[in-house]
Write a structure and sequence with these properties.
There is one protein chain. The protein has helices at 12-23, 46-61, 74-79, 101-113, 144-147, 152-161, 185-194, 197-209, and strands at 3-8, 27-33, 36-38, 41-42, 65-69, 121-123, 141-142. With 240 residues, the chain is an alpha/beta fold. It is built from 8 helices and 7 strands. Strands 5-2-1-6-7 form a 5-stranded parallel sheet. It starts with a strand and ends in a 31-residue tail after the last helix. Helix 1 (12-23) packs across helix 6.
């Protein structure tokens, strides 16, 4: 048996991996990261957030330690200052240039910096059929899903059978940030509906950033040179 640190997102693969580690008799230290737009508004829909909180209690009842990693908010990321590169001294702006800077500076940093005490290795929850990601595996970063040849579909079925499948999957295959370039319009529509204050805060942020990003690659982070929200219309007009 081993002491295992798991990056648990609330998604099907990491949820299945956590259950499998518990079934294996391992000591589980799960680190969960929830992205936030501001300190009061999660950047995931309310149903998924509530699912994570419930599932965390279930894991704790089964003997796992669950830590919630605290990362920088999306708002603070966008207004933080670049320390190097051609934009040194300027605000970072939207994170969608090349790889997602928000994921790097918030999620990855928060999970890596969360002190869970001693552990033998990490389980990073890669499914058996995610072959392109198998290169991430090593002696210190393993996946019980790969070891037990559990595919993404098998992981989903496993979670459904245990009522541990997030309601978010009803309309999306992913469980990331509502403002991600890969999010569907319905994800953002639900997010705005769940958190009524979010719309005004997004508009306020984009109006603050607009004059600061002139001539920058991330001046217009969205398709067709549109910002997150059309301030003159009720219709959401981004990524459509």
């Amino acid at each position: 048996m081993a002491i295992v640190k798991i990056k648990w997102s609330g998604g099907k693969d990491s949820t299945c991996a956590t259950y499998k580690r518990l079934e294996n008799g391992d000591t589980v230290k799960a680190v969960c990261y929830v992205p936030y737009f501001t300190k009061d508004i999660p950047l995931i829909n309310k149903a998924h957030h509530e699912f994570i909180l419930r599932q965390a209690d279930i894991f704790r009842a089964q003997g796992a330690a669950v830590f919630f990693a605290e990362g920088i908010t999306f708002w603070d990321y966008c207004l933080s200052i670049c320390k190097s590169g051609i934009n040194a001294g300027q605000v970072k702006g939207y994170p969608y240039v090349n790889a997602c800077g928000f994921r790097r500076d918030s999620k990855i940093a928060a999970c890596d910096n969360t002190d869970v005490g001693y552990y033998d290795f990490q389980d990073i929850g890669i499914a058996y059929d995610e072959f392109a990601r198998h290169g991430q595996l090593s002696e210190s970063k393993r996946s019980i899903l790969v070891e037990q040849k559990i595919t993404e579909l098998m992981a989903a079925r496993f979670c459904i059978e245990r009522d541990a499948y997030s309601p978010h999957y009803q309309y999306s295959k992913r469980d990331g940030c509502a403002l991600c370039v890969n999010a569907k319009p319905i994800e953002r529509a639900i997010w705005f509906s769940d958190y009524p204050a979010a719309r005004g805060e997004v508009i306020r942020l984009q109006e603050m950033l607009k004059p600061l990003l002139v001539g920058r690659k991330n001046e217009f982070p969205l398709r067709d040179y549109q910002y997150f929200v059309d301030t003159d219309q009720l219709q959401l007009s981004f990524f459509d």
